[in-house]
């Protein structure tokens, strides 16, 4: 029973941290897309990386309260989870914008939502362990 309670707490915290990282992601994306004129896939990638840089320390310290020092293995696993997420996000964006002609601003939100569950599973059980 405690294990399920921990999963719910971690998921709730993950959603909060994800919300913060998503806001950073989306603001960088919009700034690059609208103000700078960067191509939407490049803008999405830059925004995504900004969100990951915000999310890692928050997930480590608050979501999972992982006490160990940051190791190369932990960073590598986190990078793999979010690389998969980035590729999935780019695929969703390309599909929605290229095939369905959905505005990139809307397609980006769909892509971010699409990867939330895989990110949680990857960070909870692979990056930070099942603590």
TrEMBL record:
InterPro entries found in the cross-reference section: GtrA_CellWall_Glycosyl, GtrA_DPMS_TM
Compartments (UniProt record): Membrane
GO biological process, one term: polysaccharide biosynthetic process
Keywords: Membrane, Transmembrane, Transmembrane helix
Keyword Membrane: yes
Topology relative to the membrane: Multi-pass membrane protein
Recorded GO CC terms: plasma membrane
Source organism of the structure: Acetobacter lovaniensis
Protein name according to UniProt: Putative flippase GtrA
Family affiliation: Belongs to the GtrA family.
Pfam families: GtrA_DPMS_TM
TM spans (from-to): 7-28, 40-58, 79-100, 106-127
GtrA/DPMS transmembrane domain ranges (all copies): 13-128
């Amino acid at each position: 029973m405690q294990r399920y309670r921990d999963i719910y707490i971690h998921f709730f915290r993950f959603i909060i941290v994800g919300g913060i990282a998503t806001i950073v992601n989306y603001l960088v994306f919009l700034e690059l897309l609208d103000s700078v004129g960067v191509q939407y896939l490049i803008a999405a990638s830059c925004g995504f990386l900004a969100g990951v840089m915000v999310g890692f320390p928050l997930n480590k310290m608050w979501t999972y309260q992982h006490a160990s020092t940051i190791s190369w293995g932990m960073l590598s696993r986190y990078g793999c989870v979010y690389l998969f997420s980035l590729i999935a996000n780019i695929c969703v964006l390309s599909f929605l914008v290229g095939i369905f002609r959905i505005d990139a601003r809307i397609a980006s939100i769909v892509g971010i939502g699409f990867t939330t569950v895989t990110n949680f599973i990857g960070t909870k059980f692979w990056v930070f362990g099942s603590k």
